[in-house]
Structures are given as structure tokens and as C-alpha cells.
Amino acid sequence: MATTSRTAGKATWRNWAGNVRALPARTESPASTDELAAVVRKAAADGLPAKAVGTGHSFTSTAATSGVLIRPERMTAVRGIDREAGTITVEAGVQLKHLNAMLAAEGLSLTNMGDIMEQTVAGATSTGTHGTGRDSGSIAAQIKALELVLADGSVLTCSAQENAEVFAAARIGLGALGVVGAITFAVEPLFLLTAREEPMRFDRVVAEFDQLVEENEHFEFYWFPHTDGCNTKRNNRSQGPAAPVPGVRGWIDDELLSNGVFQAACSVGRAAPSLIPGIAQVSSRALSARTYTDIPYRVFTHPRRVRFVEMEYAVPREAAVGVLRELKSMVESSEFRISFPVEVRIAPADDIALSTASGRDTAYVAVHMYRGSRYQEYFTAVEQIMTAHQGRPHWGKIHTRDADYLAKAYPRFAEFTALRDRLDPDRLFRNDYLRRVLGE
């Protein structure tokens, strides 16, 4: 969660990882779309930029501002469930964990989701949060309609049928087009997933990568740097019966090993980097194979209590194996000491202008470093590999790309910036991050 503290009478905002902070002129927490619109109009009248922020799970300064910081924690209403249409409409401040639990209680579910569910629905979709899926990818791709408060304080509703040109861009809007007030998601009847987690050697994973992707609805894997070890996960729909991870086994794997012991190992590695390769060898063998069947959010999502910083790039799916081999070779030939595994996921092409999967089938490669560790050199080396393969950086994760690069990486980039010029010509929703990635 993001944190705030008092500095000279103002509240300093920090993101979850602690690598981004801001000192806004004031912070507002509207409780309705009408109040949100009033906040936006007041910011414009005062000549202050306005930015909305969720729970601070982005590693970039996409929501940072010295102007008016809008926090949606009071905008958490469920506006309605339409079972016939297969939709749910919720306000911007609803956290994914509450949405998932609420849907499950109603016998419903999202089709796909990421592996963290602390984010607000508006924050997650605005930055392109995604899971892994052969046929379904980002959370934003499941949006059916959006309510957007524009720079003049007016409220615009958009969908594929209404204001379609705005809908094509605003599902992943980076906070540049307006402030999201509410979102309508596509949902479906609750289903079961069977998860098969299995250790596998790196060479086998990359050799069978295409087959593993095509044969499974949801495939992902983690490679442990300084080793040849990977942990693979295959999630597929199941007729049941449900067979959740037993309580003790789940606590050992997901809390003790993945959080408690891993936290201790990262702390040791930060203090003594020379020990990291040895720790990695142990970590790569710590989790054994397991199979379980449960409702979707209990399979897709996991607690992440060890804090880190992250870079993630989307590359064309056909480039994935080459990218991974280059990444492994780079780590092995360098002096880097990497305690976090590299995460690999996939997504199908979608039709959202600034989606990292826009117009192409995609593989995601994410690298992490323990919070407080020096990450810059490692991330720079990773970024050089990714950009050589037409990589697109995740909007909410650390990268150094600018508008000149991104305009070439996204065929619909000019469409987005032209829409921004129309909806926010005076740049009420500006900040340094948007200036870098979208240009002036």
C-alpha cells in the first residue's frame, strides 16, 4: 500500500516500493463522481495539475504530482450487477481483492487477472496490469464501459458503442485523458481452475515454450538467475471437484517459503551479495511440484509481502525464447547478483491503443530487485536486450523509454496523443512521467 507522512504541513505520498514520492499541494478524497468532478474543476481554477492515485503499486511516477492528488478510497460502491449482460459496474476505488471476493460470493468471476490484487480497479487498468493467458490477457481488455471525468469537469461515458474512439484509448489511459470514476467489467459464471506447478530445467522450458503456451490456457514460469532451475505453472479450467491447497501446505509454500524465508534470504543477499548464487540454488529447489483446484482468484493471485522494484517488458511472442536466452547469458557473464526470479507470462493481441499487447501476441519478461538494492545497472542491461526486440515497457514499472521511442513501438501512439490533445489541451493531468512518455 502507498503511505503518507506529514512534511511542513503537507502530506508526502510514497508508493508501495518506496522508490517514488511526491509532495502534493493538497490531497482530495471525493466520495462520488459529482464530488470528483468538483475536485477536477477546482484544480483547474487554481491552476494546479491533478492526478489520481490508487494503492501505489506502480514503480513509476505515473501518479505523482505537486498539484492535487486525488485518492479514490471513498469511491468504492458497487453500482450494479447485470447477470443477463454479464457485467459488473464498480467505482474507481474498489480494490481487486474486494472485487474478486464480491464476485465469488455472487457466483461470478473475471476471466483472467494478475497475480497481485491489492490495486484499485482504476489504477490497475490505467497502467495495463495483466495476468498470463493464451486467449485472455490484461484486466483492461475485460472492460465493457468507462466513466471518465474530463479536464473541464464534465463526465463522459464510453464503450464500444458510445464514444468509441475514447473507449479505444481510455481503457489504458495512464491518467492522461481524465480521471476514472467507474468501470464496467465483463464477468462470467464462477469456474474452477486446476493449477499444476512443477520445477523444470531452463533448457526444457525454452525448448518447449511454444508447446506449453499452446496447450495451456494460462502458462507462466519463473527462472532463478545463477541457476538452471525454473518453476512452471499451468492453469486450466476444470470440471472439479474443488481440491484447494491444504492449509498447512499452503502456509509453508506461500507464506513461510515464498514470503518469510525469501524475505530473510533477500536481506542476507543485500548485505552479502557474494552469497546470492548459493542462495539461488537453494531457492530454485525449495518449492516442489503440487496440483490443486480452486476458484480463479485463489489460483491466479498470491500474497507478495517481500517488497521489491520491478522492470517488465512486453516483446513479440515469437521473440520470447531468444530474449530469454540472451538474458540468461547476460546474467551469467556479468558480475550482477540477482536474488529475485525472472517472471515470464504471455497474452494475446488486443485492440487497446497503448496496451503492451496492442496488435500483437505478446510475451512478458519481468525482472525484480529487492527493495533497497542497487538495481540500475541490471535493469539497464535488461532494457538493452528488450529494446533490441521491439520491447514495450509496462507503464507502471521502471523503464527509461521516452515518447520518441514509444511512438515507434506503438502503431496507435499518435491516435492516443491526438485524443489527449482534444480532451486535455491545457494538460490539467500533466506530470513529469507523462511529459516523458507522451511528449509535450
Structure notes:
By secondary structure, this protein is of the alpha+beta class. It has 14 helices and 21 strands. The strands form 5 sheets. The chain has an 8-stranded antiparallel beta sheet with strand order 17-14-16-15-19-20-18-21. A 5-stranded antiparallel beta sheet has the order 7-8-12-10-11. Strands 1-2-3 form a 3-stranded antiparallel beta sheet, with no helix packed on it.
Short descriptors:
440 residues, alpha+beta, 14 helices
- In total, the number of strands is 21
Q: Rg, please?
A: 21 Å
Sheet with most strands? 8 strands, antiparallel
Please report which band the strand proportion falls in: under 5%, 5-15%, 15-25%, 25-35%, 35-45% or over 45%: 25-35%
Mean pLDDT: 93
Sequence stretches where pLDDT stays below 50 over 5 or more residues: none
Query: Between the first and last Cα atoms, what is the distance in angstroms?
Result: 31 Å
Itemize the secondary structure elements and their pairings:
Layout: E1 3-7, E2 10-14, E3 21-22, E4 26-28, H1 33-45, E5 50-52, E6 68-70, E7 78-82, E8 87-91, H2 96-105, E9 108-109, H3 121-126, E10 143-149, E11 155-159, H4 164-170, E12 179-186, E13 188-189, E14 192-201, H5 202-207, H6 209-215, E15 218-223, E16 229-238, H7 247-271, H8 276-284, E17 290-294, H9 296-300, E18 308-316, H10 320-332, E19 342-347, E20 362-370, H11 376-387, E21 392-393, H12 403-409, H13 413-423, H14 432-438
Parallel strand pairs: 4-6, 5-6
Antiparallel strand pairs: 1-2, 2-3, 7-8, 8-12, 9-13, 10-11, 10-12, 14-16, 14-17, 15-16, 15-19, 18-20, 18-21, 19-20
Helix pairs in contact: 10-11, 12-14
